[in-house]
Specification:
Layout lengths: L26 H8 L8 E5 L6 H12 L2 E4 L8 H4 L4 E4 L8 H16 L4 E5 L11 H8 L2 E4 L5 H14 L8 H8 L4 H18 L5 H11 L4
Parallel strand pairs: 1-4, 1-5, 2-3, 3-4
Helix pairs in contact: 1-2, 6-8, 8-9
Length: 226
């Protein structure tokens, strides 16, 4: 049963292939994921703004390739030889920019995975040259990898993202909500994620459904009258 108002039920993020909305801004990235068996050197760097679909595509790839997914920050405590026995996606590489131990672990994982004949997917928000890594051998290997970027969203993709975020939270608003949000919100993936979270929180707190009127109240807090 879909949540209409005031019930703080856990949301579920849909990360299946069918839930990934294809648009010009992400079609190339999806094509690279689909063609993973032909990655040059067995590896791919995937970049893009927060909320643009990097984690979603990592899960799509993991499902089709049998890969594991790990956070870069968890690598110092990981069993690197065991991880290297299969395809693997390492997420949020910039998070280890100031962590020499994690960078060393990633360097060894990179080499072992490829030596074992498996594939490696690496994700981060900015282009790889701005990841802030300090281990020279790791930097040279990652800068030499094929990279593909998820681009800024157009109206169609933002609309699909808003609908997906609402569905993930079991919310079924009226059809006029999403077009209204598009005209008022900051146009980024991160803003869409934050806005739906705040609308959901307001709906729960006020025990009211998410409507244009509620959205107006939430958005007016972002741009109060002078």
């Amino acid at each position: 049963m879909h949540r209409q108002l005031g019930l703080d039920l856990p949301g579920r993020t849909a990360l299946e292939r069918d839930a990934f909305f294809v648009a010009p801004s992400n079609a190339m990235a999806l094509a690279m994921i689909d063609g993973w068996q032909h990655w040059a050197g067995g590896k791919l760097v995937l970049t893009g703004p927060a909320g643009s679909g990097k984690t979603h595509l990592a899960h799509v790839w993991a499902e089709m390739s049998g890969a594991a997914i790990v956070q870069a920050s968890s690598l110092p405590e990981a069993d690197i030889p065991a991880l290297a026995q299969a395809n693997i996606a390492v997420e949020d590489i910039p998070a280890i920019a100031e962590n020499p131990e994690a960078q060393t672990a990633l360097f060894h994982l990179h080499n072992l995975v490829l030596a074992e004949g498996h594939a490696l997917l690496l994700t981060g928000t900015p282009p790889v040259q701005h990841w802030g890594l300090t281990l020279p051998d790791l930097v040279s290997r990652l800068r030499g990898a094929t990279a593909v970027a998820l681009e800024a969203p157009d109206d169609a993709l933002l609309s699909a993202l808003l609908v997906k975020l609402l569905a993930d939270r079991q919310l079924t608003p009226k059809p006029d909500l999403v077009p209204y949000l598009l005209t008022r919100m900051d146009r980024s993936f991160a803003a869409a994620i934050d806005l739906i979270a705040r609308l959901d929180a307001a709906s729960i707190a006020l025990k009211r459904p998410i409507t244009r009127h509620l959205a107006m109240q939430v958005l007016d807090k972002d741009h109060p009258a002078a």
